[in-house]
Structure formats: structure tokens, C-alpha cells
Design a protein that fits this description.
With about 350 residues, the protein is α+β, with helices and mostly antiparallel strands. The chain has two domains: about 5-165, Immunoglobulin-like, CATH 2.60.40; about 230-340, Four Helix Bundle (Hemerythrin (Met), subunit A), CATH 1.20.120. It has nine helices and eleven strands. It has helices spanning about 5-10, 80-90, 190-215, 230-245, 255-270, 280-290, 300-315, 320-335, 345-350; strands at about 40-45, 45-50, 55-60, 65-70, 90, 100-110, 115-125, 135, 140-145, 150-155, 160-165. The strands form three sheets. Strands 1, 3, 5, 6 and 7 form a five-stranded antiparallel beta sheet that branches. A three-stranded mixed beta sheet has the order 2-11-8, with no helix packed on it. Helix 6 (about 280-290) packs antiparallel against helix 7. The longest helix is centred in the middle third of the chain and has 28 residues, at about 190-215. It is rod-shaped, with a radius of gyration of 63 Å. Residues about 1-25 have low confidence and may be disordered.
Length: about 350
């Protein structure tokens, strides 16, 4: 059995054999005759304190095929040796209390195969009465198994120890008050998790808020402007304004003629793509001749424009009847050249 396997054994599953050859708990060394016996050296503190542990330190030098404590490290507190220890003032402590026995094995010489096994056995010193005492630790057995299943038993030396009372250095020792309470620090896991998740939520919320604000501040498309009013609608509106401006009633015929002329010229320019107000009559007629399917005989338009030029440039004063006829001719020019929208029923019938 290797030392690493012995050390890794649980205390409940391993065993150190504390036994005796007789009922009095005395240790007797045994072993086969003629065999080389392992060498045992042990030490024990010479002084100690009552109620405290003192460690028995034993080193066994043996061969490669020999195993110290073949049954492991489980302390049998109901054995004869354990009862003898208790009678001598020593108690085997609980192995789960932090001062359990320890066992380790190391190789000393690889050529000869010599090994050393160290056994540390803590023992609590408990004298029967208070004060200073001299106690004697009895010899304890250590079993060693050979490769041929022979068992050798070695005994440690008896050790004397002077035990002091923990309060022996204080004359007339008196009970002391309990020490003041100490602040206990406890890890607040719930608060730590809450702060952690809160920080993450704040970061995520900040990112989301930034994205929302950026989305709200994004450049918004400008709404399209309202569709331009048709040129004929504007022209008819201006002609209607001229009719109801009171120019005919006040006999301001030249001004009436001029407004009707401007309305028609601006309409023709906007309708057929040229500057009607800045074009002469000849230029206007030349532009209208390039329009296919004009919708009105060009001589009538030319006659209307020439009459307007006479009033504007030759200082000819028109009569009331001429003004009314000019208004009728102007509306005829506009209505004859405007876009004709098909009625809904006709449009549905014309659709393929």
C-alpha cells in the first residue's frame, strides 16, 4: 500500500491498530525470527498544558515491500491500549476536530529500497486533578506488514511529560468576564447580486435610452409640398377677380383690359412652357404654333392678343362691350386649351 493511498483514506475507513498482547495494555514486540526488523524512533514533548494536545512523533525505517500500519488510520478508542492511555491521563482526540493523526511515507534510498514512514499521533493531556503533574505515556504498538503477509509489531518508548495547569502562572486565579462581542461580517449575497444585476440593468437601460433618443432625433423626411394648382384654375380665378373688381362700373376699361391680357398671357406661358408675360405677341404665337393639337384656332388667339396690344401700347380706349367681349374671349382661350379630365365612368370603360 503506497503512502499517498494511506493519506487519502478517510478516517472512518482506515485503522491504526492500538492493541495489546495482554489485558493490562502492555505493548509486546513481535515478529518472525531471523528477519531484519524495521527501525523505530519516536519522540514526545517533555512539557505540556492540561487540556492541550501533545503529538507523539514516530519514524519507521523499513524496506520497500513493508507497509507501516497496513490497516490504515482509524483509531480504536475501545481497545485495551486506549483504556490504558486514559488511565495514564491521555485521551485520543476526535479525528474530525482538526487534530487527527497523520501518516506519510517517503523514499530514502532508491538503490536499496529503504523508505521512511512518519506517524504523528496527537494525544490530549488530561490529568485527573488540577495543578502540575508528571505523567508517563505508555509504550504504544506500531504494526508493520511484510510482503509475505507476516506482521511485525514495534513498540514506542515510554515518555514522561510535565503537565502544567493553564492557570498555574496566575496566583489566586479568578474567573474573568466574557470578552466583549466582536462584529461579525457576513457576506450579503442577495445585496451583492441585486447590485450586480442593477448595474447591468442600468447599463442596458442607458443603451436603450440612448438608442431611443437617437431614433427620435433622426432626420425626418420633409412632407412633400402640396401639388401645384393647375394653370387654368389660376387663370379662371384671376379673370373672375377682374370681373368682380368693379373696374367696369367705374369705367376703368384700360385697366380691366390690361388685367385680362396678363391673365391670359401668364396662363399660356405656364400651360405650354414659356414666359408668357415677357414674350411679345409674335413670340407667343410662334410658341403656340409648336404645340400639337392646340385646341383653338390660332387666328382667334392672335386677334385677341393684338386687341390687347392696341389698348396697352396705342392708348386706344375700349368700350364696355369690347371689355365684356374680351373677357368672354379670354375665358374661351383658357377653357379650350385646358386639360380635359375624363369622367370616372368613361375612365373605367377606357381601362384595358
Amino acid at each position: 500500500m503506497s503512502s499517498s493511498r494511506l493519506v487519502s483514506c478517510l478516517w472512518s475507513a482506515c485503522s491504526i491498530v492500538l492493541w495489546s498482547a495482554n489485558a493490562r495494555g502492555e505493548c509486546v514486540e513481535t515478529g518472525p525470527a531471523g528477519a531484519e526488523r524495521p527501525h523505530l524512533t519516536d519522540s514526545f514533548p517533555e512539557r505540556g498544558a492540561s487540556g492541550y494536545a501533545a503529538t507523539l512523533h514516530a519514524i519507521v525505517s523499513h524496506g520497500r515491500g513493508e507497509t507501516v500500519l497496513p490497516h490504515g488510520l482509524s483509531l480504536q478508542t475501545d481497545s485495551d491500549t486506549a483504556r490504558a492511555l486514559k488511565a495514564a491521563g491521555f485521551v485520543i482526540p476526535d479525528q474530525e476536530g482538526g487534530v487527527g493523526a497523520r501518516l506519510s511515507t517517503t523514499d530514502v534510498d532508491a538503490k536499496t529500497g529503504r523508505r521512511e514512514t512518519t506517524v504523528d499521533l496527537p494525544l490530549v493531556v488530561l490529568p485527573s486533578e488540577p495543578g502540575r503533574h508528571s505523567l508517563l505515556l505508555p509504550a504504544l504498538p506500531v504494526s508493520i506488514a511484510r510482503a509475505n503477509n507476516d506482521v511485525i509489531t514495534l513498540c514506542t518508548k515510554p515518555h514522561a511529560i510535565v503537565v502544567e495547569d493553564p492557570t498555574a502562572s496566575t496566583p489566586d486565579a479568578q474567573p474573568k468576564e466574557n470578552p466583549p462581542p466582536r462584529a461579525q461580517r457576513e457576506e450579503w449575497v442577495a445585496l451583492e447580486r441585486a447590485l450586480s444585476w442593477g448595474a447591468r440593468g442600468a447599463v442596458v437601460g442607458g443603451v436603450i435610452l440612448w438608442l431611443v433618443l437617437r431614433w427620435l432625433k433622426r432626420p425626418k423626411p420633409v412632407p412633400p409640398p402640396p401639388p401645384a394648382r393647375p394653370a387654368w384654375e389660376i387663370a379662371l380665378e384671376r379673370l373672375d377677380e377682374a370681373r368682380h373688381a368693379g373696374l367696369l362700373e367705374t369705367r376703368r376699361f384700360a385697366e380691366f383690359f390690361d388685367r385680362v391680357n396678363d391673365a391670359v398671357r401668364q396662363y399660356l406661358g405656364a400651360r405650354f412652357g414659356f414666359d408668357g408675360l415677357e414674350s411679345t405677341t409674335d413670340e407667343t404665337m410662334a410658341a403656340l404654333r409648336r404645340v400639337p393639337h392646340f385646341g383653338l384656332p390660332l387666328p382667334e388667339v392672335a386677334s385677341f392678343l393684338q386687341d390687347c396690344d392696341l389698348v396697352k401700347f396705342a392708348d386706344v380706349t375700349p368700350s364696355l362691350q369690347e371689355c365684356e367681349r374680351a373677357l368672354i374671349d379670354a375665358e374661351k382661350v383658357v377653357r379650350s386649351t385646358m386639360v380635359q379630365l375624363a369622367p370616372p365612368q368613361a375612365a373605367r370603360e377606357a381601362r384595358p
